Each structure stands twice: as structure tokens, then as C-alpha cells.
């Protein structure tokens, strides 16, 4: 009887190991995440980006990938991105990924979320990430833009799907300001009530029956006009995309820009 119990415990332990220890997400063992075919990054920048991408890939069970090209004959970066991902997914046996694709020849960039990332990095969040990285790309700081893509996407993916991660209520400075205001209000209320109650009012020493207004004068003093310059909107080119499916039938969230 004891031998049977031991065997059952051993079988349960094996099942827990192969099922991911009760719900832990496991990322595929991917050797390469940066495919810089356009030669935009130095060796040191690639090594640093690989390390950052690997760290956040393990955190979410979703691989962060980068693919660049300098194909002047390319018509649609969204289609090229889909072809690259289909090949990558089959070779690595992995479906969960965040892929940033860029064609330096056409100045196009496209960010997509596959698998679980299609929900955790939806179209709205993709646009928010693009808002952050497009200025860096316009300055030619591609390493900085790619690094920002990983860290910002990873932070957004920690929020519940459907929530705007840039909502002011999630900002640390806003939460600190609210706490300070509440604290100041409570202290002020306590100080106000600690000095005793005031029983006199403005009408306590005012004789309304024997007081009258004898004259009234309205005099114009001056007029002030203020002018404000409305800033023009700046940034990258128009957006395109918004998610879809690859040629291999894999659906994704996404969005693209000119830069």
C-alpha cells in the first residue's frame, strides 16, 4: 500500500513539472532575438539589446524580437513582417512574441503582438509605444528606440488587458500628489477645529435698519488682453495597419508608422 502511494506522489510531481509548476509561463529557449539585416546596430548594442530582450522575455513568457531590413523593393512592411514571423515561429516552435520590424529604405516601422501578446499588447498599447520610439528613430537613435520598445511594452503588458497604462491615475507623481493633498487637508481640518468655535459673524455688529447706501460709482480702470500661441503638432508620418493575420494564418495586434 505504501509503495502505491509513493508511485502516485511521483507521478503527480512529474505532471506538475511538465505542466509548468502550476501555472508559471515558460518561454522557448531562443538563441537569437535581434536580426539586424540593415546593419543599424553595433556589436555592443546588439549584445546589450539581446540581454534586455532575454530578461523581459523570461518575465512574460513572450519573446521580444527585432528585425530590420534595407529592401528598397519592399511594398508593405506588414507583409514582410508576417513572412519573417511565420518562419521564425516554425523554426523556434514559439507563438508568443512581440516583434518590431523596420525597413530603413522605406522608413517604415511596424510593431506587432502575437499569441498572448495580442491581448496584453493590443492596438492601443502598440500606438502608445510607437509614440515613444518614433522621435528616437527620427534622430537616428535606433538602439535607444529598440531598448525603449522592450521596456515600455513589458511595462504595459503588466496591466490588465483593456486598461490604458498611461492613465493619469497610474502615474506615481499623481498618486504622491493626491496623498499629499489628502494629508494637507486632514491636517488643516484638525488645526481649524483645534482653535475653538467662532460665534460672531459679519452681521453681529451691523445695524441693518439704520444703514443705507447713499451713492454708487462704477469706474472702468483697465483692460488686459493675453495671447497664447497654439503649438503645431509634430511627429512621425501617418499610422497604418492595426493588426491582422500573417500569410501563415497567425493573427496579431499591431500598428505601423513612417519615421
TrEMBL record:
* One Pfam family named in its UniProt record: TPM_phosphatase
Residue ranges of region Disordered?
225-259
**InterPro entries in the record, alphabetically?**
TPM_dom
Q: Where do transmembrane segments lie in this chain?
A: 173-192
Which controlled-vocabulary keywords does the entry list? Membrane, Transmembrane, Transmembrane helix
Q: Quote the biased-composition stretches of kind Gly residues, using this chain's numbering.
A: 234-259
Which residues does the UniProt record annotate as the domain TPM? 34-152
Secretion signal, residue range per the UniProt entry: none
Q: What is this protein called?
A: TPM domain-containing protein
Amino acid at each position: 500500500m505504501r509503495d502505491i502511494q509513493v508511485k502516485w506522489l511521483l507521478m503527480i510531481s512529474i505532471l506538475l513539472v511538465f505542466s509548468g509548476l502550476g501555472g508559471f509561463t515558460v518561454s522557448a529557449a531562443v538563441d537569437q532575438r535581434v536580426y539586424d539585416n540593415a546593419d543599424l546596430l553595433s556589436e555592443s548594442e546588439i549584445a546589450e539589446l539581446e540581454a534586455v530582450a532575454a530578461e523581459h522575455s523570461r518575465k512574460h513568457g513572450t519573446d521580444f524580437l527585432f528585425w530590420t531590413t534595407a529592401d528598397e523593393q519592399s511594398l508593405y512592411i506588414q507583409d514582410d513582417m508576417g513572412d519573417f514571423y511565420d518562419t521564425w515561429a516554425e523554426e523556434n516552435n514559439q507563438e508568443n512574441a512581440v516583434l518590431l520590424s523596420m525597413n530603413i529604405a522605406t522608413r517604415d516601422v511596424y510593431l506587432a503582438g502575437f499569441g498572448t501578446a495580442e491581448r496584453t499588447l493590443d492596438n492601443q498599447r502598440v500606438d502608445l509605444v510607437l509614440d515613444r520610439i518614433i522621435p528616437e528613430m527620427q534622430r537616428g537613435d535606433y538602439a535607444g528606440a529598440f531598448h525603449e520598445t522592450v521596456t515600455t511594452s513589458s511595462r504595459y503588458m503588466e496591466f490588465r488587458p483593456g486598461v490604458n497604462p498611461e492613465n493619469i491615475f497610474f502615474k506615481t507623481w499623481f498618486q504622491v500628489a493626491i496623498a499629499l493633498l489628502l494629508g494637507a487637508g486632514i491636517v488643516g481640518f484638525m488645526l481649524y477645529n483645534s482653535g475653538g468655535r467662532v460665534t460672531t459673524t459679519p452681521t453681529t455688529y451691523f445695524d441693518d435698519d439704520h444703514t443705507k447706501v447713499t451713492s454708487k460709482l462704477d469706474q472702468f480702470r483697465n483692460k488686459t488682453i493675453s495671447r497664447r500661441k497654439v503649438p503645431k503638432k509634430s511627429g512621425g508620418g501617418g499610422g497604418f495597419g492595426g493588426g491582422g493575420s500573417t500569410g501563415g494564418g497567425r493573427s496579431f495586434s499591431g500598428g505601423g508608422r513612417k519615421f
